[in-house]
Write a structure and sequence with these properties.
Helix content: 40-55%
Order of helices and strands: EHHEHHHHHHH
Protein name: Sel1 repeat-containing protein
Largest sheet: 2 strands, antiparallel
Radius of gyration: 18 Å
Mean pLDDT: 83
Distance between the termini: 52 Å
Shape: elongated
Structural class: mainly alpha
Organism: Lampropedia hyalina DSM 16112
């Protein structure tokens, strides 16, 4: 695969490459070492030790038709920008939920979209993104994830409501005696 200079404008970490493709970080490191893909200069001090162009990863991702805005958002999410993590996580969550009837009982569920969904949504939720918390609640409610899905769904929806998420507040009102409004 030959990549031109413009392809380096969308660098992602090896961890994100592994997350999106299901290939290990070690496999991506080997591809760099063998010269199959270029290693980009890393000014971010990533734990995985390298950045690679998104274009090198694209052939290994199930969906090929990424829009430029989506790639830009993925790069921001990879850099730890909470709102970008929430948005890209929601995108993967929606894809997983749409695929749920066919793949809910498969190991990865959601055709491979569930793992990046949980990853990015969890990172955003840790930074206080209410929308990410709500999406996590929806995923657990749909049967994705480990543990007691209903309890975890309730926890995440309650946390989203406590952080001011309007839809989560309405959902909790229906669960409370007398339909009391949730303050937040």
């Amino acid at each position: 695969m030959t990549l031109n200079h413009a392809d380096s404008s969308h660098p992602i970490s090896l961890n994100t490459a592994a997350l999106l493709t299901g290939r290990s970080v070690r496999t991506w490191q080997r591809c760099i070492a063998e010269g199959q893909i270029p290693r980009l200069p890393d000014n971010r001090q990533q734990a995985a030790g390298a950045l690679i162009p998104f274009e090198a990863v694209r052939p290994w991702i199930g969906r090929q038709d990424w829009l430029q805005e989506e790639v830009d958002l993925l790069v921001q999410a990879d850099q730890g920008v909470a709102h970008a993590q929430a948005e890209i996580g929601a995108w993967f969550a929606l894809a997983a939920l749409q695929q749920a009837p066919q793949s809910l009982h498969s190991p990865s569920g959601g055709g491979g979209d569930i793992i990046p969904a949980f990853h990015f949504l969890s990172q955003a939720a840790e930074q206080g993104e209410a929308d990410a918390m709500h999406w996590l609640g929806l995923l657990y409610l749909a049967g994705f994830g480990e543990g007691d899905g209903h309890a975890l769904a309730l926890m995440w929806i309650a946390r989203a409501a406590a952080h001011g998420h309007v839809i989560a507040k309405v959902q909790l009102e229906g669960l409370l005696p007398g339909g009391e409004a949730v303050q937040g």
